[in-house]
Design goal:
By secondary structure, the protein is α+β, with helices and mostly antiparallel strands. Helix content is 18%, strand content 29%. It has 2 domains: 47-212, P-loop containing nucleotide triphosphate hydrolases (Rossmann fold, 3-Layer(aba) Sandwich), CATH 3.40.50.300; 237-333, no CATH class. Bound molecules: guanosine-5'-triphosphate and magnesium ion (MG).
């Protein structure tokens, strides 16, 4: 039977007929689908590929309301284009910069906020939080109350930024509900909208994330995904490189320092990743079969590797980056 009942973990419509299809559960009396059950209890993950069309239609329906939107993003993987969401919705928006705990403690919040403000984008407010550490969540709730235009408040953003985790934290901190949204280190965990009534004045609505097709997380196995996702404060690794030297991260990316003076490269990525350094790169062919992109780096820029982290390069340089052709890399003004 196909019911109208939705899975309390990921929002998919429940059905008890086809094990192979989304929303399957052994009994419609259950509150969550089998996929969520397995993720929650065994940490097993079953890939679902959501088309971004479905996501965009959800986003557009959010845009038809006048409700407040929390636009959530991951500090370690700040969206290249934070303004993209404005193409679809013009709602009042709070920008929530999540996963502060993953950045080194020395990074000042005010600096992060100013970095975004300098881009001249329009948000009601920019708030730095860490859902895992329960940091600034009280403040966020206060500001939600201040800006909300109705009972409903939406959480939107790319996959894996922590939308469901944030709502779970708000449920836990401020309601007596026991419902728990499904969270995972892998993309496309949430499959449809899920409404959660926190109290008489506030209902939070979780949405599936926009799949970032340029993220490295789409092109590695689940084991590597876990390695890539930082759970602890990152200890930046600094390498003093001369030309013809390289850094290689796992078997994922190789960065050759091609042209420039002695230079400092600081890697901000999960501590679990294995990093090698070649002192004489011309002798080594590792990963040279991957797609090559050349960057002319200006003074004080980051090389961003979408989904993995970034490398702060202090001085002018020419670098060759070897990486899976589907993974986005780009240069930006240094975040830190
Ligand atoms: N380090 C760190 N990790 C976090 C934080 N919040 C969430 N995460 C992790 O980020 C991953 C994704 O969390 P989810 O809540 O499933 O993300 P989502 O945005 O709902 O993802 P989709 O449903 O796929 O769109 C999980 O591995 C979480 O544990 C945080 O504050 N710090
Ligand atoms: Mg989710």
């Amino acid at each position: 039977m196909n019911s109208e009942k939705k899975c309390a973990g990921c929002g998919v419509v429940l059905q008890d007929e086809n094990v192979l299809q989304e929303g399957y559960t052994t009994s419609l009396d259950n509150d969550i689908c089998q996929r969520c059950f397995r993720m929650k209890n065994y940490g097993e993950y079953q890939v679902v590929t959501k088309s971004n069309d479905e996501y965009l239609s959800i986003l557009k329906s959010v845009g038809e309301t006048k409700d407040l939107v929390l636009y959530i993003t991951d500090l370690l993987n700040l969206d290249k284009d934070l303004d993209e969401v404005r193409n679809y919705i013009s709602n009042k928006m709070i920008l929530v910069l999540n996963k502060k705990d993953a950045l080194p403690k020395s990074v000042k919040e005010a600096k992060l906020i100013k970095y975004i403000e300098d881009k001249g984008l329009h948000f009601e407010e920019i708030i730095v939080v860490s859902v895992s550490k329960n940091y600034n969540i009280d403040y966020l709730l206060k500001r939600i109350k201040y800006h909300q235009t109705s009972k409903n408040v939406y959480a939107v953003g790319h996959t894996n930024v922590g939308k469901s985790s944030l709502i779970n934290k708000l449920i836990k901190n401020y309601s007596d509900k026991t419902q728990e949204l499904t969270m995972s280190a892998l993309p496309s965990t949430t499959l449809n909208t899920v409404n959660i009534e926190i109290n008489d004045y506030l209902t939070l609505i979780d949405t599936p994330g926009l799949v970032d097709t340029g993220s490295i997380l789409n092109y590695v196995d689940p084991k590597m995904t876990k390695k890539i996702s930082p759970v602890k404060e990152i200890k930046p690794k600094t390498y003093q490189l001369r030309r013809n030297q390289s850094i290689v991260i796992e078997d994922l990316v190789r960065i050759d320092y091609v042209e420039g003076e002695k230079n400092s490269f600081t890697l901000y990525a999960s501590n679990s990743l294995r990093v090698k350094r070649f002192l004489n790169a011309s002798n080594k062919d590792d990963l040279k079969n991957l797609n090559k992109v050349t960057y002319h780096v200006k003074y004080g820029e980051d090389l961003v590797i979408n989904g993995l982290g970034f490398i702060k390069i202090v001085n002018k340089a020419v670098v060759d980056v070897y990486i899976d052709k589907n993974v986005d890399t780009f240069m930006r003004k240094s975040l830190i």
